[in-house]
């Protein structure tokens, strides 16, 4: 089966390939191919995720986990709507802006996560962590000012997606791990609040499909007829769209596998590098124009994200040490 290090390297390579692949395929279908229905395309992604996540559970590729209460499912449903909107915002933006700019804006997620965590949970970070967010936002300001392919609609759509992604991460911690509730202690042995990412995707997909179906009906009423026309005029289009949907599912599956192999903290670092890889590959393939100012802005933002991740890891280690010291003191 190979060494653990070798398996981890293969999983990470697959994760990178899936992430880069879905971004480039989305951009190709929306802009180059000319199928300008990002909401419908996101709906197709979620349908594929629902089918394949169910298959993964049945064939025991991922462990089976269950939701046992209506209240817990209601929490997952809230997450599903937020998740659907985050993916939707990113896909809509690709219709108007290049992948490189999309990825640079996506790197500001930690900034909005910190804001939502403070507003909703009153969770404060260290001063050093907040300081690292300055280059994250400053770099985007520089990149936006120097972006030759700037589009206001695409910018706003991507920003909505980024905000929803940040909100989802805060909600996930808030809704699925209700520490402090009396019944949380009673559920500690039932795994009710411990869904892994793939089980979460399985339960979120149906709600996301309904949400995106409504959005498609309102925002893109001609999407289905356009899909039939595209399939009739160019039969390979169906294969391209199905391939795109399959790769979208692989992003979630490989994300789960990478987390299992290297841990969540290492995933953050790899995610930062992934944004750089996606940006470089998209510029090489789509030849979208870039200026020195926009490249400088992207670089400042990526450095800020790296500093933010380092600060968060340092804070996490200090928190573990502090808790261990408190436990030792209480036993003395």
From TrEMBL:
<dbReference type="InterPro" id="IPR037185">
    <property type="entry name" value="EmrE-like"/>
</dbReference>
<dbReference type="InterPro" id="IPR050186">
    <property type="entry name" value="TPT_transporter"/>
</dbReference>
<feature type="domain" description="Sugar phosphate transporter">
    <location>
        <begin position="9"/>
        <end position="309"/>
    </location>
</feature>
<dbReference type="Pfam" id="PF03151">
    <property type="entry name" value="TPT"/>
</dbReference>
<feature type="transmembrane region" description="Helical">
    <location>
        <begin position="103"/>
        <end position="121"/>
    </location>
</feature>
<dbReference type="GO" id="GO:0016020">
    <property type="term" value="C:membrane"/>
</dbReference>
<keyword id="KW-0670">Pyruvate</keyword>
<keyword id="KW-1133">Transmembrane helix</keyword>
<feature type="transmembrane region" description="Helical">
    <location>
        <begin position="292"/>
        <end position="309"/>
    </location>
</feature>
<keyword id="KW-0812">Transmembrane</keyword>
<feature type="transmembrane region" description="Helical">
    <location>
        <begin position="239"/>
        <end position="258"/>
    </location>
</feature>
<feature type="transmembrane region" description="Helical">
    <location>
        <begin position="9"/>
        <end position="29"/>
    </location>
</feature>
<keyword id="KW-0472">Membrane</keyword>
<protein>
    <submittedName>
        <fullName>DMT family transporter: phosphate/phosphoenolpyruvate</fullName>
    </submittedName>
</protein>
<feature type="transmembrane region" description="Helical">
    <location>
        <begin position="265"/>
        <end position="286"/>
    </location>
</feature>
<dbReference type="InterPro" id="IPR004853">
    <property type="entry name" value="Sugar_P_trans_dom"/>
</dbReference>
<feature type="transmembrane region" description="Helical">
    <location>
        <begin position="200"/>
        <end position="219"/>
    </location>
</feature>
<feature type="transmembrane region" description="Helical">
    <location>
        <begin position="35"/>
        <end position="55"/>
    </location>
</feature>
<feature type="transmembrane region" description="Helical">
    <location>
        <begin position="76"/>
        <end position="97"/>
    </location>
</feature>
């Amino acid at each position: 089966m190979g060494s653990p290090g070798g398996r981890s390297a293969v999983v990470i390579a697959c994760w990178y390939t899936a992430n880069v692949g879905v971004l480039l395929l989305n951009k190709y279908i929306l802009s180059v191919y000319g199928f300008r229905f990002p909401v419908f395309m996101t709906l197709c992604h979620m349908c594929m995720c629902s089918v394949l996540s169910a298959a993964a559970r049945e064939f025991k590729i991922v462990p089976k986990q269950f939701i046992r209460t209506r209240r817990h499912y209601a929490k997952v449903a809230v997450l599903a709507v937020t998740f659907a909107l985050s993916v939707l915002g990113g896909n809509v933006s690709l219709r108007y802006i290049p992948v490189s700019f999309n990825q640079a804006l996506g790197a500001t997620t930690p900034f909005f996560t910190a804001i939502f965590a403070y507003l909703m949970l009153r969770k404060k970070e260290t001063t050093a962590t907040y300081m690292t967010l300055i280059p994250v936002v400053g770099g985007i300001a520089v990149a936006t000012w120097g972006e030759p392919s700037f589009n206001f609609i695409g910018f706003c759509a991507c920003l909505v997606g980024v905000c929803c992604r940040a909100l989802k991460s805060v909600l996930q911690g808030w809704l699925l791990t209700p520490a402090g509730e009396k019944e949380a202690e009673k559920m500690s042995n039932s795994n009710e609040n411990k869904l892994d990412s793939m089980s979460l995707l399985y339960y979120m997909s149906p709600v996301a499909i309904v949400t995106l179906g409504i959005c498609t009906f309102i925002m893109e009423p001609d999407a289905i007829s356009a899909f039939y026309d595209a399939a009739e005029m160019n039969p390979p289009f169906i294969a391209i769209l199905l391939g795109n949907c399959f790769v979208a599912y692989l992003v979630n599956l490989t994300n789960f596998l990478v987390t299992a192999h290297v841990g969540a903290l290492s995933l953050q670092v790899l995610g930062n590098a992934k944004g750089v890889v996606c940006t470089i590959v998209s510029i090489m393939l789509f030849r979208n124009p870039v200026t020195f100012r926009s490249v400088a802005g992207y670089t400042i933002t990526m450095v800020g994200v790296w500093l933010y991740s380092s600060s968060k890891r340092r804070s996490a280690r200090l928190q573990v040490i502090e808790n261990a010291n408190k436990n030792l003191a209480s036993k003395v």
